[in-house]
Every structure is written in C-alpha cells, then in structure tokens.
Design brief:
Elements lengths: L24 H10 L3 E5 L6 E5 L4 E2 L1 H15 L5 E5 L5 H8 L4 E4 L3 H9 L3 E6 L3 E4 L8 H15 L3 H12 L3 E8 L5 H10 L4 E2 L2 E7 L4 E5 L4 E6 L5 E8 L2 H18 L1
Parallel strand pairs: 4-5, 4-6
Antiparallel strand pairs: 1-2, 2-3, 6-7, 8-13, 9-10, 10-11, 11-12, 12-13
Helix pairs in contact: 2-5
Length: 266
Amino acid sequence: MEAIHEIRDAFFGGRLPEPAEGNLDELANLVQKGGFDLGLALDGDADRFGVIDSDGRLLTSNQVLAVLALHLLRRRRMSGRIVRTVATTHLLDAIASAHGVECVETPVGFKYVAAEMLNGDVLIGGEESGGLSIAGHVPEKDGLLADLLMCEVAAMSGESLSKVLGRVYEEFGHRITRRIDVQYPAEAKGDLLSRLTERAPSHVGELEVRGVKTIDGVKYLLERGAWVLVRPSGTEPVVRAYIEAGSEGDFAAIEEWTKKQLETSA
C-alpha cells in the first residue's frame, strides 16, 4: 500500500480536490507502475470517491454504483430499494428489476436520496457525481465507505474491477453515460425548459421518444434503453446534458441532437 497527498493541505496542492478524470493522473500512473490492484481517492471532505482499476483506468461513479449494487445483492445477500438521481445510470434499474426490488428516481442532489433512505428499506442510494451510501450506514454520501466497499469487491472476486464491470455489462447490457456542459445565458433557461417540455420531439436522432419526465430538468426516455436529460445549472450560466446509450453510435446521435437544441436556442 502506498499513499499520496495524505498530508493536510488547505490548498490541495494548487489543484481541484474533485476525484474525477483529469485530476487523478498521478494516482493512475502510480497504480500501473507499482503493480497495485486498485487506487482509491477522496475529495476534500471525503464525501465523494474515485476508483482506479489495476490498468490505471478510472471507473465512473455510475459504474461503481452498478458494481456495488450487484455486489450487495448477490455476495452480501442484502435486499432493499435502489435509489438514484434522475441523472444517474439506468443500469441500476436493470439490476433492480432482475432482483425484484424497486428502483426509485429522485431529483439531482443527495439530499433527495437521503430522504428516501430515511424512509427505510433502501439497499443503496447514489448519484452520478460521486456520492453513495448503503443500508445500515448514515443517510449521507460517504466517499470512504464507497472506497472500502470497492476494496471488498476486489478482494472477494479475486479479479480486476474491469473484469467485474465487464460481467455486469454482459448480463445487463453495456451503457455509455457521459455529461456535456454548454454555456447558456441564465435568462434563457426558463424558455429552454418550456420549449423542451411543451414541444417534445417524436425522435431524438433516429431514436423514438417513449416518455418525458420533468422531475428535475427535462428527460427524454428513448428506445433501446437510451435517454437524455437537459438540466440547467442553478448557480452557473451553464446547461448540463446527461446522455446514456448502449452504443457509441446512439450516443453520438443523441449528443449531436442535444448540442443543436442548445445552440439554436441560446
């Protein structure tokens, strides 16, 4: 075991403390060169997690949530509802359905996930921005807990995390889930949401729109299990679009359509 940046530093070495891709290059290189099984990271207050596999690849928060949900259900033989925010992967829905448990969707923000946990019978709750908690723990996101659980997954499986994730995809379908941020004038955000809600398209690219949700932003549910969520930031002149698809082709088509909507409306 080896630790880096473990000393107290209020300036975080001049870098952002977010444990996200682009900030974890040093950890990824250390894992690869040192032959470690995994690398684990936390943000400044340890409520968000970052996980690097033995090949130096970052597992996204969505991927970690899916791996841990299946781990708790099958290896630990736990049960309960799965709670995710509207911007988080639907891979959790597929896992929940296969195990006969409910998957609950909330607005963005862990406080909504925590509220469901306080209602009881929640196995795991999480969000794509790197927060999670599980049954029996505090109803607040805990990055250290997430990292320790991923250690448990690696130890109990005896395999690399990439192999564990690969088996999840083989059983429940591959998912490509990413977020794009577009600069957008704050005064136009309301009109954007109104237009997307009131004049929902029949198709996004070639994918049929099969449902519209407006619990937080506007979310189009598409065929082949794909979806796109358009959600303005509440603090910045930015609109965020969250996209999930089963193939790079579908993802690219949804991304192109989404960018055009934001460009023509700005």
